[in-house]
Amino acid sequence: MKTFTFQVASAAVLAVCASAPLQAQPVAAGSPVRGGTLAVPIHVGEPSTYDCHATNSPAVMWRIAPHYSTLLKIDPDQFPRVVGDLAKSWTVSPDQLEYRFTLNSNVKFHDGSVMTSADVKASFDRMRNPPPGVVSLRQGMLSGIQSIETPDDHTIVFRFGHASTTSLQLLAMPYACIYSAKLMASDPSYPFKRVMGTGPFRFVRHTPGADWVGERFEGYFGAGKPYLDGFRMLSISPVAATNTLLAGQVAYTMSGLTPPEVKRVLEARGDSVVLRGGNNATTFLPWFAINNQRDGLKDERVRRALNLALDRWGASKAMEQITPMFKVGGLVRPGSTFARSDAELAKLPGFGHDIEAARKEARRLLAAAGKTDLKLTVVNNRAFSYFGVYVADQLSKIGVTVDHQALATPQVAARRVSGDYDLIFDSPAEYSDDPSIQLSYFEPFSTNRANLARFGDVKFVEMFNAQQRDFNPASRLKRVRELESYLLEKSYVMPLFWQSRKRVMDSRLRGLEGDYPSNYVKIDLADLWIAPAAGK
Length: 536
Prior knowledge:
five-stranded mixed β-sheet; alpha+beta; four-stranded mixed β-sheet
């Protein structure tokens, strides 16, 4: 590891510094300048696919996003407001069923071909109605779309079957990469194995275990963007990612830092870095999905017992010292419009403060279900192995034995598809905190392969649809609270802790100054730039 880190270091230092030493004091914010190559470590493993439509994983999205455009995107500075990407304007019908988008007219793919509305339609059709052999995790989220029409090359019309509070946010999902219709027609698997979009950066190479490299696409439709010459994402372990930041070899890390890590980096780097974020919870909630197709876990008493065993309040302070995922919350983001107070949350299953009483009830439920000797296989991403250790410890308190399997990202992806697990590490769509986005995870597995709990619940669908179509803020809040309570009673997943992401960044880096609520904003890197060193 030392040799690999040293080899990466020399290249990464040159990349971030852009041939000049880092300035001790941040320069004043000014107009963006072009130049420089950004180096960033990716700590969550190698991608299992190149296909945005088939993944929820940041291992894929953080690497892929700079190469693709989406119809819409979430505004990071006015979260979760929707702004255009490929769409330069749009209108909505009075009944909120028809959304008509006018596309930018100067968009080209990286192979030089012109992008039109046909490419947008083909990409969304692929997500909502995937052809044989194509995996789409977006099918359930986009099931409300009734039709898509393309009156001309620069106009696309989406018609929905019902009005929804979140139609625009659904169309703004970062996973909705726009692919070439022509290439998909000749090779339906092209998105899986080839990177070719209309994004700000052209794909250069992916060397598994080493790096992912992109270069500026001079034909990008965003005026004057991107500012960077290119980027290099280093494939590295979580510990090594922090060490490269500590040594000044990267501009920032995608992971949040713990208080001890923040202290170490600030002491070592001084005024050459700045601390950003960490004041609020982000939209990232890791959990273990509970496989409802397994005989022992079909009984909701068993699933609820597993949730009751976790001492979330007691573990929160310890978690803060080892991970940025430490905030206690329900199934909606703490601090958001729909979140409960701590006192209200404590009334829900798995969130009470009397852990001994909760575990006594858990053991009673297991006995009633005839599962006092329960043994579970827990499949985990090795980047988050501490969560598997935590869950195994907590479940042992109620007599449950755990086989914790901490695997590489591609292996986890394979198990997701096969269903070979009792519990598996996962998270909901994390680009928006609206319940229609976050809770869409629980839509029936029959049309929603993102649902790794692998169930279908008619009552959930009724409650979910009702809140989604309720435009009255007060009554919608009530519906969301009832839906959250219902899901926690059913215990389809075992929620862990919400993320609060503190990041130490190179003081010359511009474009990432905010405390962003999502890990999935600004990941196309189009707005980022490196300020020149003093005297340059």
